[in-house]
## 1
Amino acid sequence: MRPDAPFVMRAALKTLEEISAGQTDAQEVSRLRGVMSLLSIVQSEWDTCAASRVAGISRYADIVRQGSVVMAGERQEHLRRVLTSVEEAAPDLRISTLEMTLDHLRMAVIDLQAWLEDTEGPEARELLSAIWRAEYEDAKSEDRNHSFW
Amino acid sequence: MEPSTFATRAARYLRQAWDNPRIEVTDARKIIGGASRLTWSVDATWTEDNGAVQDRRLIFRLDPPSSLLESNRGTEYAMYRALYGTPGIPLPEPLLIEDGGDAFGMPFFVMQRLEGAAWPQELLTPAFAGRGESIVRQMFRVLGSISAVDYHAVGLDEVWPTPPVDDAWSFELERWEKTLHDHDLGPMPITQAVIRELRRNPPPPIAGLQIVHGDFRVGNVLFLPDGVMGVLDWELTHLGDPHEDIAWSMARNWRSGLTPEKIGGAIDPAEAISEWETTSGMRVDPVSLKWWQLFSHVKANAIWATAAHEFSTGRTSELMFGTMGWLNIGSQEKWALEDLGVAAS
């Protein structure tokens, strides 16, 4: 089996750990730790980065789809256009494209959420709650559980 | 800049500033950490006419071309000058300020170097065994003393813009919202929703404006096993609601991964509040505190966004700037939603 990227990064991390252990300069140690911290995150997200973004797109697209039902006029048209662009981009699984699609959806969610906050009625309340839940899932997927110390 | 170059330039500057051609710089080293200014530790020494050897341990704080925080050097220096010597607020003595770039290519100020550690991991070392609780308690008493200062009496009303008392919260919210806008990282629906929530439900009115350090936390306080030696990094200081400092100092960002429920890895939030109340002479309003806790997430994300923006636009190649935005924003937004009660819904 060919060594995959996480495997190679594990070796890189080990090398950096060895270099760090031999360092006495606190500044150099700190810089090395910064690089190691980054590498270990890339290593841990390597396998899931596309899947987590696809899941995020699905979550927010569902919200925008529901929003396009409760909204009307130009707002509704805008949400529909966003959904069309999401569908058009769907076959492209490059991370950069997935990120761009997510950003389109996030932008649409900002407008939808702000509108719902000023809208009365159980339908609006329910969709607003769904948005909060989707956002929480989004935040969890971006949470790298980084501790200050 | 190489340490030897910095030492040469520092010696040249100090000889001129203190009109003393005998000054030599025996050591100059860049201090790691600190993202808003470049900080150098410098040892200067000279021999008096009577043969007595004098030495000064100094800190040079330089304004780099790219900074994590848009901060005002003059304000920070004025703060040190105004509060230096105030009982209960240990500070380094401010010594010199230079607005020109002749000495180092950028403006800077010089202050006394205090002994002690600021890096929070130090609290976990054997030297601090059994001392953490007392240090963190003292930290909050110091914060209370800062909140208790009459800013008119120490001449600080000349230094800052004074927001209307009733609008102190919106002044700060707009400031950080603008920072986010100016360092756009793409759409942030959670942070935007939190900003709208904060604006819809402002904090209770405050009786008056107080000095707010702006970045008071473990990491910006210098300590020895005996206690707190100095409060550092006043770049974000302003007049406002003291709940801002309390909320910020207790934020989850600064808590140890080992004991996330404890402030500074040592005391409960209620104990920290109690210490602050002892020296400030004020009471914490839980509703205000909650508002400022939520606000802290916006402020933190604005800082992370600034870092990420500076890095991604090539204004800095400091790895720390690149990692901050990437590592922190997701956690910050998750915590914000948890503070809003969304996680439980």
## 2
Amino acid sequence: MAAKLKTGNSIRRSTRHWAWLFILPVFAAFCIGFIGPFIQGMYLSLCSFRLVSNAQFVGFSNFATALADESFQHSFWYTALTAVVSLVLINVLAFTVAYVLTQNIKGSNLFRTVFFMPNLIGGIVLGYIWSMIFDGILRAYNTSILLNTTYGFWGLIILMCWQQVGYMMIIYIAGLQAVPEDMLEAAKIDGATKLQTLFKVTIPNVMPSITICMFLSLTNGFKLFDQNLALTGGLPYIIQPDGNTINTTEMLALNIFNTFYGSATAARGVAQAKAVIFFVLVAALGLAQLYYTRRREVQQ
Amino acid sequence: MAKTKEQTLAAERRTKTTLSVTLAIICIAWVLPMVAVIINSFKKNTFVKTETFALPTAESFAGWDNFIKGMTFGNYPFASSALYSVIITVLSVALILVFCSMAAWYIQRVNSLFCKIVYYLCVFSMVVPFQMVMFTLSRTAYVLHMDNPFTIPIIYLGFGAGLAIFMFSGFVKAIPLEIEEAAAIDGCGPVRTFFLVVLPMLKPTLISVGILEIMWVWNDYLLPYLVLDTNEYRTIPIHIQYLKGSYGTVDLGATMALILLAIIPVVAFYLACQKHIIKGVAAGAVKG
């Protein structure tokens, strides 16, 4: 160990002076593309502004306005519902398919190829494809996905499943293939049925994959934007008694986008405050994921 | 006893066949949306709405008209959008791969306080959603005149650095120091050590990260939409979304033709590098 540290030291000494080449270009881009905008965004959430040049510090009032905004509350619950429902469906489907595909059946490579394919198509294109399909079906009933909140909701869920099942399936397959063969063998010799083996041996062994996939689909659900924009764009909307409109299928990310750019008189400070709240939510999910996956690593 | 064994084997074979057939049916259902795009891209506009799931008939068949019309449809040439998409993706991914692998190596080997700060900032940036920085980032890009396809890769390098540096760091850690030591003794400076010794060893990681970044940049809509001057420059997702903007008057046949053109390169890319893509996705998921 000491010897290794020493070797490392000589590399460190000779490399040290090359920071300007190795790390500064990325750091400069990182400041432009992330750190600068992030800090400025944090500050602007405490300001009242339409253009950055006339920003005025107002403290936390933007946050109060944002939290009291009914459309924001609606989009939060709608997002949470979408995320949870899609999480359950995607993971159940993906795990089932992965489990079947690892049972040595014919054509499993082809099936895997097909299931994964939609994942590479971008959200905007996906939304457009599915809006054509749903409207093709709903036309027979004289309605459209843009006219009905329930159809809009399930339409988005179907789209998300189509896109993400293949992705999660890949992770589950990797997990399932790593289940020790001798454990399965032992269960078989002990007379366990297939179902018992699945629940008592296989699933406990793929728990790390399950944790990863659950968090991935949850954060994917919370951050969803392109698909939401292209499929329904938040429609249909309802007008509240107090004159505010609520887009019934609008998720958090789209709500923030619309608050920023939706109207000519937009209060961008409120939009930035919403973005900060959104950031805290997503970051909390990310940290929870890190905590759970790390804890498991320590246990192993 | 022997008979029961034979029976169980036969039963197992039957189950497997049933599973294969069921999956085959689900697979067919899985590709139906894409089939719908293909058949509708050959239909005349009005028939896309009324007979979405029917094959084109003599009456509704439009031939290549939709594709010809789609090329100039939406007041912006589709070929330009495709070209800008390619330019942005290639430049951004190249920048990210070269500079982030360099930075990750430097961070791991030098490990100074500055390195640690940069590394943790990178990890932190991975949990920040784009909406948080979207307004200020697009304004920064505007102020710095980075609103064209040749400068937007710098923005992508900055915003994408987190995941790339994080992934590269994990793999650099696994490279034994002795190899670099040997290179140093043989007279290689840090630059040559990195490019001639370390980089070739990182090849599998370069492919994995490259694929994740390609999928991200190629399909990204919001960042280029907010950063680019969209009257001058569009990418394929922006182009498709602008078509939808003119809803009601939109020619659905031509739109479907463009969607088909947008999907074909993606599917071709997937079929050509399937193995790497699946490996990259699995690696990215476990890391990120």
